[in-house]
Specification:
With about 300 residues, this protein is of the alpha+beta class. About 45% of the residues lie in helices and about 20% in strands. The chain has helices at about 50-65, 90-105, 110-125, 135-140, 180-190, 195-215, 220-240, 245-260, 280-295, and strands at about 10-15, 30-40, 70-75, 80, 80-85, 145-150, 155-160, 165-170, 260-265, 275-280, 295-300, 310.
Length: about 300
């Protein structure tokens, strides 16, 4: 029996705080953004990204077969040929799972269905990115702002952003390879476990501080906590001999400080995207203009985008 095939989309993400520490059981705060990956069914023999292929196989095993393969459009999360670092592979996996569930009649506005989509996409994505925490997949599946923590089980809590907090994204113009940076941090754990533990304990404390400030709605505390977290990420990078906070990211942080804000890597670092925080919208606007003057690239997004949807 043929079913009416349904496409789906999922939002990209911005990790506001919790990089590296989330792999150690600390909380992370992540936001979905309104740049989406869309998938649609095709009968042509088109190659699929490995995370989509893996997720598609798992979703079909759960829901039932669907004729054809998925065509993936991730152009909204790219600038020319470069990824912007907004979690396109996680969004593609979430959209792939959603397309199968929706095709088999499961409503994507049902929280129970979305949780099953998330579990399926998490497993598919982990088959090709086993070092990840899954925080990016969670943002793409559920949308909004989330407090994410992974120990034995994954804990998810929806958040509201502080009302007077301005958040800006800036692409540095330089792509980074998350797996290489995470690998260097894991190498530090093996060769200098005491140093590794010291750096991670600092990150864990600061990640909790950021999450609590965000949850309380204290924008000024969020700005300070982000600056402290950036410094701790830089210290981890120095210990691991990894360019977690490279020259471009330091430049973004210096510009944010000039306008009474703060900025940090948005993800593993080494380039890609920085996220900046302000309590004044005029300061945030001046910061973006200053970034453009320095050859950096502000990324326009809407925050707290909805999770998986049909399209």
């Amino acid at each position: 029996m043929l079913v009416n095939r349904v496409g789906a989309s999922a939002p990209g993400k911005a990790l506001l705080c919790g990089e590296y520490a989330v792999l150690d059981g600390a909380p992370a705060v992540v936001a979905a953004v309104d740049r989406r990956v869309e998938v649609s069914w095709t009968d042509e023999a088109a190659p699929m990204p490995p995370e989509v292929e893996a997720t598609l196989a798992r979703a079909k095993a759960i829901c039932g077969d669907v004729r054809g393969v998925l065509d993936v459009d991730a152009s909204a999360l790219r600038r020319d040929a470069s990824k912007l670092g907004l979690g396109s592979s996680a969004a593609a996996a979430a959209a792939a799972a959603a397309a199968v569930f929706a095709t088999h009649g499961h409503a994507l506005d049902d929280p129970t269905v979305v949780r099953r989509v998330f579990d399926c996409a998490l497993e598919g994505h982990a088959s090709v990115a086993p070092q990840g925490s899954g925080v990016d997949v969670a943002a793409s599946a559920f949308g909004g702002f989330l407090r994410f923590r992974r120990e034995v089980e994954i804990e998810l809590e929806r958040l509201a952003a502080p009302s007077d907090l301005c958040i800006e994204l800036v692409w540095t113009g330089h792509a980074a390879r998350t797996s290489e940076l995470v690998g260097k941090v894991f190498d530090l754990r093996e060769r200098a476990p005491g140093d590794y533990r010291q750096r991670m304990e600092s990150l864990n404390i600061l990640a909790s501080d950021f999450a609590e400030a965000f949850e309380r709605g204290s924008a000024s505390h969020v700005v300070r906590a982000a600056a402290s977290y950036a410094a701790a990420m830089a210290a981890l990078g120095e210990a691991a001999q990894a360019p977690i906070v490279d020259a471009r990211l330091r430049q973004v942080a210096e510009l944010a400080g000039r306008f009474s804000g703060s900025a940090k890597p948005c993800g593993a670092g080494g380039g890609d995207v920085a996220v900046a925080f302000f309590v004044d919208s005029e300061a945030a606007s001046s910061f973006k203009l200053a970034c453009e003057d320095e050859g950096l690239h502000p990324i326009e997004v809407s925050w707290g985008a909805p999770g998986v949807r049909t399209c």
